Amino acid sequence: ERALVTILGNASWWGQHLSLVGGLAPRYLTVPPTPGRRPHAGTRDVDLGLALAFPANTRADYQKLAQCLQRAGFGQTRDEPAFTWTRVEDGEKLKVDLLSETDEVAPGDSFKPRANTGSRLQALNARGIHLLPLDHRVVEVTAERLDGQGVSTVSVRVAGPLPFVALKINALQLRHLTKDAYDIVYTLDNLGPADS
Fold this sequence. Notes:
26% of the residues lie in helices and 23% in strands. By secondary structure, the chain is of the alpha/beta class. A hairpin with a 2-residue loop joins β3 (84-89) and β4 (92-100). The protein is globular.
């Protein structure tokens, strides 16, 4: 959450158009843990993975989004996909994956949302991103920033159950990771009464 608060705290206009769709989302979609209900395993994962989604058809300056990530201390490396930005904090690698949706490339492929504009920013083509405007919630997240600017509170758009499960089903079909199946089952099992 520190990475999320730092990135969105620097994001200005972009902060209104980025949505949390990955590893931290179940925390905000499900009922709180109780003695009989275990917390989502992703909340204890030291390899923090945030997936932020943005609309491919926007006219925004993607270079400003890249600068926002750089100001938050994230960068791109050769050992990660082009849509992944990383930072090492306390000896652990934090990751931010940028996702969007397009018909230009196959699902699961990387693409440049604004090709031929000078921006090198890339995103992972993920089916289900188009559902975010239809089903999301805004939550306030407070955490200590990674950039030494103290504690901040930011408004975070979190994918609702429909886009979250759709994205996870598509991810499961593409990469066959048990964590995607776990996220689907855990989230559906632990939705609040309003979402069930």
